[in-house]
Amino acid sequence: MGFGDLKTPAGLKVLNEFLADKSYIEGYVPSQADVVVFDALSGAPPADLCHVLRWYNHIKSYQAEKSSLPGVKKALGQYGPAGVEDTTSADSKDDDDDIDLFGSDDEEESEEAKRLKEERLAAYNAKKSKKPAVIAKSSILLDVKPWDDETDMVKLEECVRSIQMDGLLWGTSKLVPVGYGIKKLQIQCVVEDDKVGTDQLEEQITAFEDYVQSMDVAAFNKI
To answer: Would you give the DSSP letter of residue 150?
Structure first.
């Protein structure tokens, strides 16, 4: 298991293929797993590795708050696809681990040492439980097409913006010519992934059938 050496083209290629159908190293929100892999890179990946570059730029935006991301750091070699040789050494473990929760397995622990370890573990778990959960969000660009050039586009946009849901925020919009005097409405929105989906948006927007012929997702990006 692992990505190999992420400072080499071969390692970056493995990471790029791994992220082809994933937004994060583990789970569905940024975590300490992403921090470990991000810190193992020597810099931004080349543009031809589009999946890992997308992930790199996204995780880079969390650098100011990376210590508060959920999860517990593991060795780099414990992340990634199976069947890839772990070429990282034991010395590559992150130096910024705050505390040694479990001490050395070889040491004979006294009652005092056990008590201190339990106190540290309890304090660590209490601190971790107070960290706010990261809310996964996406930025979506929608194309809303009218029936013809006589459709009232001002009214069409009013109908679209009248849709209100918990986790939905409408943004900027513009009219884009599509031909024969017809213009489509292109409108931006930000959604909380756990609360709003594109299927819900399409169902509610196309319900305004007097104005709307169809709706398409023009762009979809994780925030």
So the answer is: T
Structure tokens at 199: 């299927």
Give every strand in the sheet of 182-192, ordered side by side.
Answer: 168-179, 182-192, 137-146, 212-222
Backbone angles phi, psi at 139, to 5 degrees: -105, 125
What is the predicted pLDDT for the residue at 66?
A: 86
Count the alpha carbons within 13 Å of 6 in the hemisphere toward its beta carbon: 25
Tens digits of residue pLDDT in 34-49: 999 999 999 999 988 8
Mean pLDDT of 27-39: 91
Nearest to 57 by CA among 43, 71, 67: 43
d(CA 196, CA 98): 37
By C-alpha distance, which of 181, 176, 189 is closest to 221?
Answer: 189
- DSSP-assigned letter for residue 12: H
Asked if residue 156 lies in contact with residue 215, where contact means CB atoms within 8 angstroms, the answer is no
Cβ-in-10-Å burial (0-12, 13-18, 19+) of 188 comes to middle
How far CA 34 is from CA of 81, 109, 170, in Å, comes to: 14, 34, 30
| Bridge partner list, 141 | 188, 219
* Residue 78 confidence (pLDDT) above 80: yes
Per-residue pLDDT for 98 more than 70? Answer: no
Inter-residue contact 159 to 187 (CB < 8 Å): no
What's the pLDDT score for residue 96?
Answer: 44
d(CA 203, CA 184): 18
d(CA 44, CA 42): 7
Residue 85, pLDDT score: 55
